[in-house]
């Protein structure tokens, strides 16, 4: 499965002739948050978490990144204390539209049976100060997630002119087939659900202060397995620094 994913990305790279001038200058960022939430679910059992990310651009349109996050013995991820997300992203511009494809790997040191892979792609454009994006992330059938998982989402963000504030919103839907209901509850505790988020950032130089309001809807379906749903309406605060 990983070989097929690599072949897919290789084809995209060759078709786009990505191997142009490289920029190996690293991009670094660090974040502290009151709750590490993804797709409306907590990855840190509702507790504070710290994260850091390193990104490189080895060729035009191609970027590599690795990010680490403390998970505080997350029940969602087999008691893992940390998660490492690695990604390869290829991006091209088609006039005013930007399109990208990616492969990402989610690892949980000391809990290798929880690791899984996702494939993704999306497109976005600017309308004045408004950035609009549509994207999809698909995790093929894997034992670690008890089946497969498809996440479809739309995202919008705008920098408020004349202020240091940026406002963003996202709505997404998670679905998929479950071979093992307990393992699939890691990503879909209710079988399938919709999540939404409102994000406000205050940016001053390399520093960012932000708040995230997230919510989930699952049509009254009951969460499966021993993993706490950690869903519903939640508010989280962030502070970040980038170089």
* N-to-C CA distance: 35 Å
Estimate the helix proportion, in percent: under 10%
How many strand segments? Answer: 14
Which structural class is indicated by helix and strand composition? mainly beta
How many domains?
A: 1
Beta content comes to: over 45%
CATH topology: Porin
CATH architecture: Beta Barrel
Q: Overall pLDDT, averaged?
A: 89
Q: What general outline do the C-alpha atoms trace? A: globular
Poorly predicted residue ranges: 1-10, 12-20
Which H/E pattern describes the elements?
Answer: HEEEEEEEEEEEHEEE
Question: Strand sequence of the main sheet, in spatial order?
Answer: 1-4-5-6-7-8-9-10-11-12-13-14
CATH hierarchy class name: Mainly Beta
Question: Given the structure, what is the number of helices?
Answer: 2
Tell me the radius of gyration: 18 Å
Let me know the CATH homologous superfamily: monomeric porin ompg
Biggest sheet features: 12 strands, antiparallel, barrel
What would the keywords be for this entry?
Porin, two-stranded antiparallel sheet, twelve-stranded antiparallel beta barrel, 243 residues, 14 strands, mainly beta
List the helices and strands and how they pair.
Layout: H1 2-16, E1 23-33, E2 37-38, E3 41-42, E4 49-59, E5 62-74, E6 80-94, E7 97-107, E8 116-127, E9 130-142, E10 147-159, E11 165-175, H2 181-184, E12 193-204, E13 207-217, E14 234-242
Antiparallel strand pairs: 1-4, 1-14, 2-3, 4-5, 5-6, 6-7, 7-8, 8-9, 9-10, 10-11, 11-12, 12-13, 13-14
């Amino acid at each position: 499965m990983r070989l097929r994913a690599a072949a897919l990305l290789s084809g995209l790279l060759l078709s786009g002739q990505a191997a142009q001038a490289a920029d190996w200058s690293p991009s670094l960022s660090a974040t502290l948050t009151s709750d590490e939430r993804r797709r409306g679910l907590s990855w840190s059992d509702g507790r504070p978490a710290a994260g850091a990310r390193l990104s490189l651009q080895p060729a035009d349109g191609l970027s590599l990144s690795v990010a680490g996050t403390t998970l505080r013995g997350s029940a969602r991820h087999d008691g893992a204390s940390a998660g490492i997300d690695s990604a390869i992203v290829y991006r091209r511009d088609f006039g005013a539209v930007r399109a990208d494809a990616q492969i990402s790997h989610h690892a949980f040191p000391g809990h290798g049976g929880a690791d899984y892979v996702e494939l993704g792609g999306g497109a976005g454009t600017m309308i004045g100060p408004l950035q609009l994006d549509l994207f999809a992330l698909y995790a093929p059938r894997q034992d670690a997630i008890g089946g497969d998982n498809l996440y479809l989402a739309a995202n919008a963000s705008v920098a408020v002119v004349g202020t240091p504030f940026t406002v963003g919103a996202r709505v997404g839907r998670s679905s998929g087939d479950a071979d093992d209901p307990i393992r699939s509850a890691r990503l879909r505790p209710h079988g399938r659900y919709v999540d939404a988020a409102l994000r406000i950032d205050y940016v001053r130089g390399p520093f960012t202060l932000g708040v995230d309001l997230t919510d989930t809807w699952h049509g009254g379906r009951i969460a499966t397995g021993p993993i706490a749903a950690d869903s519903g309406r939640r508010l989280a605060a962030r502070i970040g620094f980038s170089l």
